[in-house]
Amino acid sequence: MFSSTLLAVVLAISPVAFGKLFTTSPVASTTFPAGQPATVNWQDDGSAPNLQAFGPSDIGLFTGSVNQQVLLQSIATAVDVSKQNTIQWTPNANVGPDGSKYFIRFTSNGLKDPAQPNFNFPAEAFSAMFTSVLLPIAP
């Protein structure tokens, strides 16, 4: 549908960490061309739980709000974030319209959210929100 488009990514806020995993890339000036390799980087922010506790995680491109989030594209599954701190993926140009808010979400496959001990929610970490702009690629 948008096979000849460019997905330009402009991050709107600074990176946020929930599970003590801190996303270092993408940053505000990053541009991800649709159909071309892009990189997500992360590091331990030095507080508990550390990346070893966060462990194997699913990584995806999401849209939505604090209360409701929708997976648009899976980036990787079961990545041990304590043994790896970068991953390459190819953004799909069909993920959404111009102006939508997107973010990278890490979902731990084993660690539960310590802030909500009465529930069985996984620990999660998020990148900054970013806006997608679809532009035609010059011939």
Task: Provide structural commentary.
- It comes from Hericium alpestre.
- Keywords: Signal.
- Residues 1-19 form the signal peptide.
- By secondary structure, the chain is an all-beta fold.
- It has a single domain (5-134), classed as Immunoglobulin-like.
- It is built from one helix and nine strands; from the N terminus they run βββαββββββ.
- The strands form two sheets. Strands 1, 4, 5, 7, 8 and 9 form a six-stranded antiparallel β-sheet that branches. It has a three-stranded antiparallel β-sheet with strand order 2-3-6, with no helix packed on it.
- Strand 4 and strand 5 form a beta hairpin.
- The longest helix is centred in the middle third of the chain and has 4 residues, at 51-54.
- The chain starts with a strand and ends with a strand.
Any key phrases for this structure?
Kre9/Knh1-like_N, globular, 139 residues, Yeast cell wall synthesis Kre9/Knh1-like N-terminal domain-containing protein, 1 helix, mainly beta, Kre9/Knh1, Immunoglobulin-like, six-stranded antiparallel sheet, signal, three-stranded antiparallel sheet, disordered N terminus, disordered C terminus
